[in-house]
Amino acid sequence: MASVWSGFLTFGLISIPIRLSAAARSERISLNQLHSVCHTRIKMPLFCPTCDRMVDRSEIEKGYEYEKGQYLLFTPEELEEIEPDSARSMEILEFVKLSEIDPLYFDSSYYIAPDDGGAKPYNLLLEAMKTSGYAGIAKLTMHGRENIVIIRPRKNGLTLHTMFYSNEIRSADEFTGGDKSEVKEAERKLATQLVQTLAAKFEPEKYHDAYHVEMEKLIEAKAHGQKLAVVPHRVLAPSVDLMAALKKSIEQKPATGKTLLKAVPEPSKKRKAG
After folding, report:
1. Helix, strand or coil for residue 85?
2. Is the same domain home to 220 and 98?
3. I need a labelling partner for 208 at 20 to 30 A (CA). Which of 110, 117, 255, 271 fits?
4. What tens digit of pLDDT does each residue of 65-115 get?
């Protein structure tokens, strides 16, 4: 897999040549936009309305709109000149306990691999972080942005996560509402019991994208002239009697993994005799 960044990872006076590779990617089925009249795929061309013609990517330059319709233009050389040191090296600024970081701050994940000549100091840092239980905080400039990043040890190496800055995290008060309804002790005990009933070891391989699976079924059915019989969704409503709902939940675990769709043959249409 191609690396997305290469440079040096430093802590103290130790420099480690490294490269970053994306640790995950979304697996989604993409649907194209088609013209409803002729079913031709709609394209998004680079078009200049002033010149009234298509524009090649070689003619594109970057600019900042400081007033309506007025732009400050920047050359690639000017943008490269203002890149901070973190564009070429990541200095670990401090070490923190991973448990102290709210997962809300995590953004994208990358695997860190040592580059030529970096294996020994890389493994030294990995072992030191494993032993101490600390994760590293550093800065990294990539894709036109200086990111605050967390570097943490895993079984097979170091993993890096870009993080949101504190000013990018929206206040929870905007969404949690002001209802301070009191929870009764009996309700709290039953809710805790229900949590314990559903407790399990985290095994991510157990979970699958149900929408992706059903989309594949729909594509397969369409391709073979079939239609899909839809299994009705559950009708939900707010729980009024919490105690009764909690007790019933403990007695019987909720069903999961229900099949939503199944393919059935499209009824054949008899042709009229000519």
Report:
1. helix
2. no
3. 110
4. 988 888 998 888 888 888 888 888 889 999 999 889 999 999 999 999 999
